[in-house]
Amino acid sequence: MSIADIKKNAQDKMTKSLETLKNDLAKVRTGRAHTGILDHVTVDYYGNPTPINQVANLTLIDARTIGVTPFEKKMGATIEKAIRDADLGLNPSAQGDTIRVPTPPLTEERRKEMVKLCKSEAEDAKIAVRNIRRDANEQLKKLVKDKAISEDEERRAQDDVQKLTDKAIADIDKIVAEKEKEVLTV
């Protein structure tokens, strides 16, 4: 494994950590409705757990209501139960063929809890990035030990890995700051 491979591998893993953080933060509910809230809901579709967007059409009815229209009419009750059981604090109600999912307004206390949750997710992402840096540095040390590279090359490569780490952590802070602003906006 070369220095370039180690750096590329570290960068790829850090990018995946950022994507994971974005996905985790998408679950955090803000005051407005968006169909992404239901992305992680799975419905029992003929015995198979299936993502809700594969058994129903998700739309926004208004700023606080999501509309769920099942592709098959008999799936309505199953979808309604899956949304209720998803522990998102949502209470769907069927109206004809469509299931309306109103998103209740967030209290100030709940918003602060959401911000804490965002910060916790950010800290987990930062820990993941630091672990990636540690692994990359250990691989570089192994190359020096095996006399594949010089100590100067190792030092330069470690500096590059540190720059990648700093950039990833700055990106995490930026993403979380945007989400906090979104959560605290009434």
UniProtKB/TrEMBL annotation:
<keyword id="KW-0175">Coiled coil</keyword>
<dbReference type="GO" id="GO:0043023">
    <property type="term" value="F:ribosomal large subunit binding"/>
</dbReference>
<dbReference type="GO" id="GO:0002184">
    <property type="term" value="P:cytoplasmic translational termination"/>
</dbReference>
<dbReference type="InterPro" id="IPR002661">
    <property type="entry name" value="Ribosome_recyc_fac"/>
</dbReference>
<dbReference type="InterPro" id="IPR023584">
    <property type="entry name" value="Ribosome_recyc_fac_dom"/>
</dbReference>
<feature type="coiled-coil region">
    <location>
        <begin position="133"/>
        <end position="167"/>
    </location>
</feature>
<comment type="similarity">
    <text>Belongs to the RRF family.</text>
</comment>
<feature type="domain" description="Ribosome recycling factor">
    <location>
        <begin position="21"/>
        <end position="184"/>
    </location>
</feature>
<keyword id="KW-0648">Protein biosynthesis</keyword>
<dbReference type="Pfam" id="PF01765">
    <property type="entry name" value="RRF"/>
</dbReference>
<comment type="function">
    <text>Responsible for the release of ribosomes from messenger RNA at the termination of protein biosynthesis. May increase the efficiency of translation by recycling ribosomes from one round of translation to another.</text>
</comment>
<dbReference type="InterPro" id="IPR036191">
    <property type="entry name" value="RRF_sf"/>
</dbReference>
<dbReference type="GO" id="GO:0005829">
    <property type="term" value="C:cytosol"/>
</dbReference>
<protein>
    <recommendedName>
        <fullName>Ribosome-recycling factor</fullName>
    </recommendedName>
</protein>
<keyword id="KW-0963">Cytoplasm</keyword>
